[in-house]
Specification:
Elements (H helix, E strand, L loop, with lengths): L2 H17 L8 H15 L4 H10 L5 H10 L10 H17 L5 E5 L6 H16 L8 E7 L2 H9 L1 E3 H4 L5 H7 E3 L4 E4 L1 H4 L2 E5 L12 E5 L9 H14 E8 L13 E5 L4 E5 L1
Parallel strand pairs: 1-2, 1-7, 2-6, 7-8
Antiparallel strand pairs: 3-5, 4-5, 8-10, 9-10
Helix pairs in contact: 5-6
């Protein structure tokens, strides 16, 4: 094995220990695309030296910067569409029937730059517009993310034209955003006010988050090993109220844990209900 391969394996182990992400073989190109600029800026000669620096300088902030770079992913407004339609047409009405007068709580896990939780907030608003007075206590969305840079971006609620174009209709842009020239838009305060952002590593405890009626954990479990994924799903179950729902990504499946979740066909899409 070459020295470069050994350094890559050290980095892979570090990343899995730190945030659970599993890099497959031959992913050197991905690491290079995410880290080359950082290494050049810091005068670091390769992954081996990067690992030594992180070990020798644990309080330098370098570890957090590397995790930020490796966990930042593209995201969309109303990604895959159907989860937000299921929320409005099925889950919120069911919640109102079963828990009248209660506040709806939703967790958006690994929220990236905020498009998912703000989309959830817009979906709640759309339900309330067509069903005035039914969701009497309103809704709260707790959005968590490991990357401090992504959290800063999400809290700012400001997006450029490229980000806006990824899944947002003109009608929603007009209704829920204020233009902030040049070429930027800011989410309006009524939408922002439902969302609370917190920094959280999915490998850490969820106990501080409280209980939820619905959890969106979409397009993130694909990065974890099978054992870590199963552990996360068990601990998510512990945050769900009895009969609460879990939403996974369109390409993700539960694959097990029948004692904790039952599959619900929604046509389109599949969701999972806590047993």
């Amino acid at each position: 094995m070459s020295a470069a391969d050994q350094d890559f394996n050290l980095f892979r182990d570090f990343l899995e220990r730190t945030c659970g992400i599993v890099l497959g073989d031959n992913k050197q190109y991905l690491v290079a695309s995410r880290l080359n600029r950082l290494l050049e800026q810091r005068g670091i000669n390769g992954l081996g030296e990067l690992m030594r620096r992180i070990q020798q300088q644990p309080h330098s902030g370098l570890r957090e910067i590397v995790v930020d770079a490796m966990t930042t992913n593209e995201t969309l407004w109303f990604r895959d569409v159907y989860p937000f339609e299921v929320l409005k047409n099925r889950l919120i009405p069911e919640f109102i029937r079963n828990q009248p007068g209660q506040r709806l709580r939703i967790w958006s896990a690994a929220c990236s730059s905020g498009q998912e939780p703000y989309s959830l907030s817009m979906a709640i608003d759309e339900f309330e517009r067509t069903n005035p007075g039914q969701l009497r206590a309103g809704g709260q969305i707790v959005a968590t993310e490991i990357s401090s840079n992504m959290l800063t971006a999400a809290r700012s609620a400001r997006y450029d034209s490229l980000a806006i174009a990824r899944g947002l209709s003109q009608e929603r842009l007009t209704r829920y955003f204020d233009e902030a020239p040049p070429g930027q838009w800011t989410v309006k305060m009524p939408v922002r006010s439902r969302v609370e952002f917190r920094q959280l590593n999915l490998l850490d405890s969820y106990s501080i988050l409280g209980k939820f009626d619905i959890v969106f954990c979409r397009n993130v479990l694909i990065y974890f090993s099978a054992d870590v994924k199963k552990d996360i799903l068990r601990r998510i179950h512990a945050t769900l109220k009895p009969g609460g729902y879990l939403m996974l990504g369109a390409s993700e499946a539960l694959n097990g844990l029948p004692e904790l979740y039952s599959m619900v066909q929604c046509n389109p899409g599949i969701i999972y209900q806590a047993i």
